[in-house]
Amino acid sequence: MNQLIISGSPHVHGEMSIKSIMWGVVIALIPAWLVSLWYFGIAALFVTLLAILSCVAIEYVIQKYLLHQEPTISDGSAVVTGLLLAFNVPSSLPWWQVIIGSLVAIGIAKMSFGGLGKNIFNPALVARVFLLISFPVSMTTWPRPIESRMAFLNFDGITGPTALGTLKTHLAMGETISQIKLPTYISLFWGEIGGSLGEVSAIALILGGIYLLYRKIITWHIPVSYILTSFLFAGILWWVNPEKYIDPVFHILAGGLLLGAIYMATDMVSSPMTPWGQIVFGIGCGVLTILIRVFGAYPEGVSFAILIMNAFVPLINRAFKPKRFGEVK
Amino acid sequence: MKTFAIGGVHPQENKFSASSPTEVLPIPAKVFIPLSQSLGVPSKPLVKKGDEVKIGQMIAAGEALISSNLHSPVSGKVEKVDDYIDASGYRRPAIFITVEGEEWMPEIDTSPDFIGEITLEGPAIIQKIKEMGIVGMGGATFPTHVKLMIPPGKKAEYLIINGVECEPYLTSDHRLMLEKPAEIITGIRLLMKALGVEKAIIGIENNKPDAIELLSKTAADYPGIEVVPLKVKYPQGGEKQLIAALTGREVPSGKLPIEVGCVVQNVGTAFAVYEAVQKNKPLIERIVTVTGSNISQPSNFLVRIGTPIITLLEKAGWNPEKAGKIINGGPMMGKALFSPEVPLVKGTSGILVLNRDEAYREKTEPCIRCAKCISVCPMGLQPYLLARVSEIGRFDIAENEYILDCIECGSCQYTCPSARPLLDHIRLGKYKVNQIIRSRKN
Fold first, then answer.
1. Nearest 10 degrees: Cα torsion B305, B309, B314, B320
2. In terms of residue numbers, what domain contains A209?
3. Which of B253, B323, B327 sits opposite A324 (nearest CB)?
4. What is the mean pLDDT of residues B349-363?
5. The domain boundary residue, chosen from A86, A115, A134
6. What is the largest CA-CA distance in chain B?
7. What number is the ipTM of this complex?
8. Are A89 and A226 found together in one domain?
9. Does residue A172 share a domain with residue A110?
């Protein structure tokens, strides 16, 4: 008999691992990715592959040559960051800006905080906001679906605004809601609209979300509270003045709200840990998103809303503890 | 179907030995009886080297308030009273006996007859249970007579019988329920009389439908005894979780079950009580499951206390070459043994032997704050936080975050996708916090 192994209980381990979680997220993103390939073609394929590749490469280089650690790229977390970064930019984004985005996501937002599990802010969103502020033109030039399928590098004449962008511009020009020509709910639902390459299709994002819930990678708390709060807040505004404020269904389906609520706000590392904390986080995200969209300078507020709420996570964790068994009040 | 509300996990059940009837294991040539077999103070030896002992003769007395009597499981000669190396590697005193013949104490009823009629009154029953060295058979080995003495000002309303066996692999309670239902029900009636309660609830998880059916049928004549099927969920066999599942009551933090009018006993304890009171038989043997990937014939054995564990492993066909880990108990809460040469004790409900390839822990990764540990904690704690503050020595935070409420069920560590050793750190934290609280009192 060989030497026996001694360790404390438990002696068995469940099936979930970091790898299974990260690859589970990748699987959940596949429907939305396929939709983006259908509408935005070669350029979408190029941007996603480049973002994934550069995120993984940058993480590898930083771990191996800068920090002299064992590289952990096989855990899949850099792949998820790369994929989500690509989902948050237009398919026409120049290649070098994609690489800068990856550098910001992995190098600044993730590794400088200490790597996986230590970052306060969602890396892909930090990169998106960085790009939006640094390259406002290319980050707000949106290739039109189907027409831009075969386009690569040159997108002249086949770009247009997003649904939220149209709304904001025309409202600023003094038009009322009924005068503005907006995409139909059907095209918002399937994704035949301009926008960041992964945010366009509501149905594909919801499908992936159901898969994440089924695999128990996310819980319902953040997506439901986020979406419901946005719906209620936008609904109240719409009820007050439907000619000035768009209806709540439009707010849910347009822009990055579903992508943000299901995939970005639920990022385990940068979201609260208790059910009530997650609900409060979701409510905060919803309120901020609608505030920015309706009253802010930018047409879209999802990224800012989630990043601002990320900063509140340590406080939320402190304030909302789980219900203890046999709690004595 | 009923279950507890907060947390819990569902590991693979792996009840390989569920359909293997209990086999009587032959008496070994030598036994050694550790003097510490229950929670509390070790028993005081009553025999010395060279003494002749009979089966069932008291050989050590539990004199302290929380302690228990020990009886010889064999007849023969006391070889020595000396230290042995216990399961944790510490030197502990034990009584070593060389087996000669098979001579029982005359007052013990060794006939197979079932005695259902109860003649003793409550206090006499408790006295008998104390004399016969009965301890909690579920693994915690708390002396049973102490649990039956209700503190002044409190009142017991329910006797809760634990037939849950929520640990994966283990089947000893399951087999006992199938093979000795009448004895278990009589034991429960004795416990009810001792406690002066009218109601007993037997909780059994619904992965044992045969046991649920059989005990329901056997208990049908006694309207005070109810069998309740429970949804399979670990750690339902934890006292507080079981009470919550069956009665909906929550034992307050830091308090005992009697606070909500409940006393919990294991089915194995109920059987031992039957034997002690009706048959005058002390606790000298028990059913043990021997199972795991390393065992060719997963079995349930009726074994005398003090039998070296290696005897059981050999009988069940283990493979010493491939064995990586020997666990006293189940995979969730059992203790890894450093050697199979240790003796079987009153609290051993199973021996699990895992092959080397599945005995190692997975590689630890960074915490990704997924909060799975929080969602599975049956006590509603924050395991990641408790582990972290214990790791960095902030025991003040650990205490304020109720680390002492932890029941060490291991659900957090089982679930952790990063395979972090959460319970290792929390155990250390509990130990330190207990130390700090003691030093504060002095």
1. 180
2. 161-319
3. B253
4. 93
5. A134
6. 64
7. 0.91
8. no
9. no
Residues A300, A166 share a domain: yes
- With pLDDT > 70 as the criterion, what percentage of chain A qualifies? 99
Contact residues for A241 (Cβ-Cβ < 8 A; gap 6+): none
Do A110 and A179 have their domain in common? no
pLDDT in tens, A169-185: 899 898 998 888 898 89
Cβ pair A20:B417 closer than 8 A: yes
The DSSP-derived string for B33-95 is EES--SSSSPPEE---TT-EE-BT-EEEE--SSS---EE-SS-EEEEEEEEEE-TTS-EEEEE
Nearest CA distance, B49 vs chain A (angstrom) = 33
The pTM of this model reads 0.92
3-state secondary structure of B362: coil
pLDDT tens figures, A221-261: 999 999 999 999 999 999 999 999 999 999 999 999 999 99
Distance from CA of A322 to the nearest CA of B (A): 6
Total domains, chain A: 2
Q: What is the mean pLDDT of residues B171-200?
A: 96
The CA distance from A14 to the nearest CA of chain B, in Å, is 5
**CB B295 within 8 Å of CB B316:** yes
Q: What is the pLDDT of residue A329?
A: 67
Instruction: Please answer yes or no on whether A325 and B405 come within 8 Å at the CB atom.
Output: yes
pLDDT band at A141 (very low <50, low <70, confident <90, very high): confident
A-chain CB neighbours of B356 within 8 Å are 2, 5
- Residues of chain A in contact with residue B411, where contact means CB-CB under 8 angstroms, are 10
| A108-112, A170-174, B204-208: range with lowest mean pLDDT | A170-174
* B chain contacts of residue A273, beta-carbon cutoff 8 Å: 369, 371, 374, 382, 384
**A176 and A307 co-located in one domain:** yes
Q: Which residues 6+ apart lie within 8 Å of A224 measured at CB?
A: A282
Does the residue A35 lie in any domain?
yes
Within-domain flag for A218: yes
- A119 vs chain B: nearest CA distance in angstroms? 10
Q: Which residue of A16, A115, A327 is in closest CB contact with B415?
A: A16
